[in-house]
Amino acid sequence: MRSLTPRLREKTAPFFMRTIKLIIQYDGTNYCGWQEQTNGPSIQETVELALAKILGQRVRVQSSGRTDAGVHAVAMPAVFRTESTIPLKAFVDGVNCHLPDDIAIQSAVEVPTGFRAIGGARSKTYRYTIYNAPVRSPLNRRTSWHVREQLDLQAMQQAAAYFVGEHDFAAFRGANCSAVTSRRRIDAVQINQSGPLITIDVTGGGFLKYMVRIMAGTLVDVGRGRFAPEHVAGLLAEPDRQRGGVTAPPQGLSLLQVIYPG
């Protein structure tokens, strides 16, 4: 009588899936944002197609959040699941061979199955960069907002301090933001200047659509003398988008870092 052992082993063999976390850096100038859309190329779609060249099949890559059209990332975490046993190095060197010059995988690590890129982050840090000079800079045009008027850095720093803490940021959200609540926690806002470059680093637990760009635009309006620093406190106490500052253009914004518990 033929043994059934080999067939039973094959049928009951454990199903193994790896969860891989990538750190992706990109210049978002030529893309419609992170999320795949029908109106142009996205970072997500481009990365997934490059991964498919290595894996032989399309996998879904989930990031820690969405960046808008024209926004950049120094270190965007993103995860996917695969049955492939290829070494982690292939997810860096191999995938980068199939990516355009404005996107690159910086690292790949294996994480526990339950790891969540989105919703599981402890904090995120965004940087908004302003080129503050009378004459525009061709070399900085893709990564900064050119503001010609001299800005009052001290007034901007005073205004930035009001953002820290948990507040209702309804005055700092885009009109089409779908978030259920506009309350958010901001841990730190740091403003520094090096020559003509002014950077605004914002760290918090989460952000509304266009939130950092509207915060940056409002701080620039403070620096221009349009608002007093205390105006920010008023917008947080009595939210009104119409009384807020401009929405800063996307090219000055970059995702710097995402921190996860542990």
From TrEMBL:
Pfam families assigned to the protein according to its UniProt record, in alphabetical order: PseudoU_synth_1 (PF01416)
The keyword Oxidoreductase appears for this protein: no
Gene Ontology terms describing biological process: tRNA pseudouridine synthesis
Keyword set, alphabetical order: Isomerase, tRNA processing
Domain of life, per lineage: Bacteria
EC number(s) from the headed UniProt entry: 5.4.99.12
Residue ranges occupied by any Pseudouridine synthase I TruA alpha/beta domain in the UniProt entry: 23-113, 159-261
InterPro entries attached to this UniProt entry: PsdUridine_synth_cat_dom_sf, PsdUridine_synth_TruA, PsdUridine_synth_TruA_a/b_dom, PsdUridine_synth_TruA_C, TruA/RsuA/RluB/E/F_N
GO molecular function annotations of the record: RNA binding; tRNA pseudouridine(38-40) synthase activity
Gene3D superfamilies from the UniProt entry: Pseudouridine synthase I, catalytic domain, C-terminal subdomain, Pseudouridine synthase I, catalytic domain, N-terminal subdomain
First-tier enzyme category under EC: isomerase
Catalytic activity: uridine(38/39/40) in tRNA = pseudouridine(38/39/40) in tRNA
Complexes and interactors: Homodimer.
Function: Formation of pseudouridine at positions 38, 39 and 40 in the anticodon stem and loop of transfer RNAs.
Similarity annotation: Belongs to the tRNA pseudouridine synthase TruA family.
Descriptive protein name: tRNA pseudouridine synthase A
Organism of origin: Trichlorobacter lovleyi (strain ATCC BAA-1151 / DSM 17278 / SZ)
Gene name as annotated: truA
